[in-house]
Structure formats: structure tokens, C-alpha cells
Write a structure and sequence with these properties.
Elements lengths: L5 H4 L18 E4 L4 E6 L4 E3 L7 E16 L2 E8 L4 E2 L2 H5 L6 E15 H9 L3 H21 L1
Antiparallel strand pairs: 1-2, 2-7, 3-7, 4-5, 4-6, 4-7
Amino acid sequence: MVHLNPADTTRRNAINFGEDERRTGHDRRLDSRRGERTIEFEDGDYIFREQETGDSAFIVKSGRVEIVKSASSGEAVMASLKPGELFGEMALIDNQPRMASARAADGPVTLYVLSQTELDLQVDACPRFVQKLLKLLTSHARKAGDLTI
């Protein structure tokens, strides 16, 4: 898992909810004290579902998130994420549908939101080799994910 400090991954003066805020029924708020966009989910709420189009990645601020994948017997938990861990980035890197679902587990969850634009700014600042490497690793992870269930 990737551990990140949200201060290193977001441009504090470029965060807004705008048109990309589509989820309803969840408490969304802007932490104006620190200029960070956060979103909150209750225990069991899905953050996103397998096969959805992705427009944001997330960093766990508090709580626990389960990454789950559909299986013949229901859902299989692929990972359990704790504060500081990033998820949902693959759909932004390769513009493919989400390969798994993410849901709040064991109580409420607060997430930092990283938009496609914010991620693109970070990736664009990387050398071309690193950009191609990210796409290659994402491709390998998707193939491995298809084999695990």
C-alpha cells in the first residue's frame, strides 16, 4: 500500500467541489482550516463500486476502508486500508473502470479527496519514464486482480 501525506499530494489553492461532486447522501465538507477537501462515509457505505468510472482517488484520513471484489460466493475482501493509505488511483491513471469496490468498515470514515486534475498535476511533474512506469504497473495490477478471484 502507498502511504502519503495529503499535504504532499494536493494543491491547497486549487480544490473545489464543482461538477465532479456526484455522490448524494454522504456528508461532504471542505476543511477550510487546512484547505483540504474531505468526504465522510458511515460504516458499510460504499465509496465507489466495481466497474464505476473514477473521477477521484482517496487517502484515508481516519477510519478503515475495505477494498472488495465480486466473487462467485459474494464479495471477497482484497485489502483493509488504514489512515495514510491511498486508493482509487488506478482508474485515474489508466481511465479504466474501477476494478474493485471500496466501502467504509468498522465505523465512520473520513477521506481526503484527490481529483483527476490534482493527480494529473502530480504525474505531469514526474519524468516521462515514471509516467510510463505508472501505467505499466497499473496494467500489471489489473491483470493480477483479474486472476485473484
